[in-house]
């Protein structure tokens, strides 16, 4: 088994787009802002210069972080998987809360791209660990931070 963190192709493309934007747009913009701030005189008391340098540090740190993540990640193309109705990495799962009847949809993705607001849950999360290996129609139970949850798997699909 690989020690490389998994990431979906869509997640990889999104991170690569962010990296490209940082390198081609944000970095040149901040370099120009630093040059302009230098022209205003004494650098010790130049707030524009210090703010621009701080922003440059943040941009460079994010570039280094993204390059490191992308170079180590194992890209998995979910569209080439065909596990049927079994839940595996990359699955989009429709669930129904057995207690409240509320329906939710999650996609199981790598830790690098997880965003619960977009319905992207990390493969290492408690709910994803409970889902992996289950089939459509199965029920599952897992411990969430706010207590034990019971869900039924309504549908499994791969985008």
Number of helices: 3
Low-confidence stretches: none
Give the spatial strand order of the biggest sheet.
5-4-3-7-6
Number of discrete domains: 2
How confident overall, as mean pLDDT?
A: 88
Number of strands: 7
Radius of gyration: 22 Å
What is the architecture of the largest domain at the second tier of CATH? Roll
Distance between the termini: 25 Å
List the helices and strands in order: EHHEEEEHEE
The CATH class designation of the largest domain is Alpha Beta
Protein described:
The protein has 3 helices and 7 strands; from the N terminus they run βααββββαββ. The chain has 159 residues and is of the alpha/beta class. A 5-stranded mixed beta sheet has the order 5-4-3-7-6. The chain has a two-stranded parallel sheet with strand order 1-2. Helix 1 runs antiparallel to helix 2. A hairpin with a 5-residue loop joins strand 3 and strand 4. The longest helix is centred in the first third of the chain and has 30 residues. The chain folds into 2 domains: 71 residues, Helix Hairpins, CATH 1.10.287; 80 residues, Transcription elongation factor, GreA/GreB, C-terminal domain (Chitinase A, domain 3, Roll), CATH 3.10.50.30. The model has no long low-confidence stretch (mean pLDDT 88). It is elongated and about 70 Å long.
